[in-house]
């Protein structure tokens, strides 16, 4: 019997996640597109830069609209005021993350557990602080072109920025068949870039291309982290015939090529 850990929820073989920074007002249009095509994303906000109420000339979205606007997606930390974290004292890093986390939680009503690095900047000091301030992942700006998961979620390198050839990358992802690995496409950017570059059709075309595939799980960043952590937490007998899932969510494992669901809390005989 052979057991492999390659599936996502429902036995899907691939996952797509999107990641957008800064909370500019153009997020409103981007979310409309995501919602139209069933694409899920994470939005990394600087709560110190959000206006109190929604006005047409404010560059950022407002606090009063955050919960409703980003519903069904994930709101995540991008620090309070968008400094370069490597230029701060350790206490400054703690404050910038904690205050952002706290403000966003007050707006959204759930634990905010992830972030992206402002300017993509981080170093060993910054990395060492994150677990203590409740951060379970953080996205860099180092696009890899690959469809793999990071070893360490605190250095989550994305697949690609949504640049001109993103649809080509999307096709490559949909056509790829890598049964030896988990397949994740992670796209990042800023919604204002579509306005600056006048290319909203690019993201519309990409979302249309990627939507509605039975083997793709459309997930926020934290949903992927939670799922992968649940898979990593599975307890097997020495001969792998029985597995215990100590988490609260179902996970799917590959048993001799078939996707088998192991429910949260379940001890299951695989053979
Ligand atoms: Zn930013």
Detailed description of the structure:
With 271 residues, this protein is of the alpha/beta class. It has two domains: 3-230, Alpha-Beta Barrel (TIM Barrel), CATH 3.20.20; 235-269, no CATH class. It has eight helices and 14 strands. It has helices at residues 27-37, 63-69, 90-108, 124-129, 166-175, 192-196, 200-210, 221-232, and strands spanning 3-4, 14-21, 41-45, 74-77, 114-116, 137-139, 160-161, 183-189, 216-218, 235-236, 242-244, 251-255, 258-262, 267-269. Strands 2, 3, 4, 7, 8 and 9 form a six-stranded parallel beta sheet that branches. Strands 1-12-13 form a three-stranded antiparallel beta sheet. A three-stranded antiparallel beta sheet has the order 10-11-14, with no helix packed on it. α5 (166-175) links the parallel β7 and β8 (183-189). α1 packs parallel to α7 (200-210) and α5 runs parallel beside α7. The chain is globular. The model has no long low-confidence stretch (mean pLDDT 96). Residues 21-22, 78, 82, 118 line the site of zinc ion.
Mean pLDDT: 96
Gross CATH architecture of the largest domain: Alpha-Beta Barrel
Q: Give the CA-CA distance, first to last residue.
A: 8 Å
The CATH superfamily of the largest domain is known as: Glycoside hydrolase/deacetylase
CATH fold-level assignment of the largest domain: TIM Barrel
Bound heterogens, unique:
zinc ion
Total domain modules? 2
The helix/strand class is alpha/beta
Kindly estimate the percentage of residues that lie in beta strands according to DSSP: 15-25%
Kindly state the number of beta strands.
Answer: 14
Low-confidence stretches: none
The residue fraction in helices comes out at: 25-40%
Bulk shape: globular
What count of helical segments does DSSP give? 8
């Amino acid at each position: 019997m052979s057991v492999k850990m390659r599936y996502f929820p429902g036995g899907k073989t691939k996952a797509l996640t999107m990641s957008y920074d800064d909370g500019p007002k153009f997020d409103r249009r981007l979310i409309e597109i995501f919602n139209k095509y069933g694409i899920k994303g994470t939005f990394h906000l600087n709560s110190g830069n959000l206006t109190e109420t929604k006005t047409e000339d404010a560059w950022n979205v407002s606090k009063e609209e955050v919960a409703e606007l980003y519903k069904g997606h994930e709101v995540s930390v991008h620090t309070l005021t968008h400094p370069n974290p490597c230029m701060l004292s350790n206490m400054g890093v703690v404050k910038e993350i904690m205050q952002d986390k706290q403000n966003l939680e007050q707006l959204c009503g759930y634990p905010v557990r992830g972030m992206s690095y402002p300017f993509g900047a981080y170093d060993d000091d910054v990395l060492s602080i994150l677990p203590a301030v409740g951060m379970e992942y953080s996205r860099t700006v180092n696009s890899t072109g690959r469809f793999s998961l990071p070893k360490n979620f605190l250095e989550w390198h994305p697949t690609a920025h949504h640049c001109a050839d993103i649809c080509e990358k999307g096709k490559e992802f949909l056509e790829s068949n890598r049964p030896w690995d988990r397949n994740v496409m992670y796209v990042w950017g800023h919604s204002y870039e579509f306005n600056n570059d006048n290319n909203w059709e690019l993201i519309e075309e990409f979302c249309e291309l990627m939507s509605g595939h039975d083997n793709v799980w459309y997930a926020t960043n934290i949903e992927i982290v939670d799922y992968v952590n649940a898979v990593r937490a599975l307890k097997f007998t020495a001969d792998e015939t029985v597995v215990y899932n100590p988490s609260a969510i179902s996970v799917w494992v590959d048993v001799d090529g078939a996707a088998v669901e192991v429910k949260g809390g379940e001890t299951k005989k695989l053979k």
